[in-house]
Design goal:
The protein is mainly alpha-helical and 184 residues long. The protein has one domain. It has six helices and two strands. Pfam families: DinB_2.
């Protein structure tokens, strides 16, 4: 299985998880916060929506500009790509402070946040398909918070998916805490 196929499969799993685990919850459950500093389920998804609003169009433009038939199926990683991926891997339990405009804490959020997340996942699935004709090793995506730095198309696709996996898992932990609290 190629990296793009793996990313597509993970994206599909994330769509299913969000639909199955969160779509039927009421607004109080979706906005439940285990602690005042932690994020609710909707805040986790809104954080991802904010990243998708930037990265999906950036990826779309980069893929379109670099789809000249020189498809390279394997991804090579820059130091920036490796560092970014290591930081957002779900296995990395270390908390990271997010940049202010990407922090959804204390936002007024509702079910539209879930709908937007699922729409971004559909867009990402299309990008992963179109990327099969792109040079994945082309440095073409400006980093959201420091646009002078650029990541490669392939590593950015992987960053987006892994970052989403991290925060969907975070949202699932919030749901578990809410269930445990309700059962107590």
């Amino acid at each position: 299985m190629t990296t793009l196929e793996q990313l597509s499969q993970t994206t599909g799993n994330l769509q299913q998880t969000v639909t199955n685990e969160f779509a039927a919850l009421d607004l109080a459950a979706l906005n439940y916060k285990p602690t005042p500093e932690s994020w609710s389920i909707l805040e986790c998804l809104e954080h991802l929506n904010r990243y998708s609003r930037y990265y999906n169009p950036a990826l779309s433009n980069a893929i379109a500009a670099n789809s000249d038939g020189n498809y390279v199926p394997s991804i090579t990683y820059s130091w920036l790509g490796k560092k970014s991926l290591d930081m957002v891997r779900p296995q990395n339990g270390k908390k990271h402070k997010t940049v202010k405009h990407m922090n959804p804490a204390n936002s007024a959020l509702g079910p539209a946040t879930i709908e937007e997340f699922l729409k971004h996942q559909q867009d990402l699935q299309q990008l992963l398909q179109v990327a099969k004709s792109a040079n994945l090793n082309k440095k073409a995506i400006p980093v959201e918070f420091f646009k002078l730095l650029k990541m490669r198309i392939g590593e950015t696709l992987e960053f987006v998916v892994i970052h989403q996996e991290r925060h969907v898992q975070q949202a699932l932990r919030v749901k578990q805490e809410l269930s445990a609290k309700a059962a107590a």
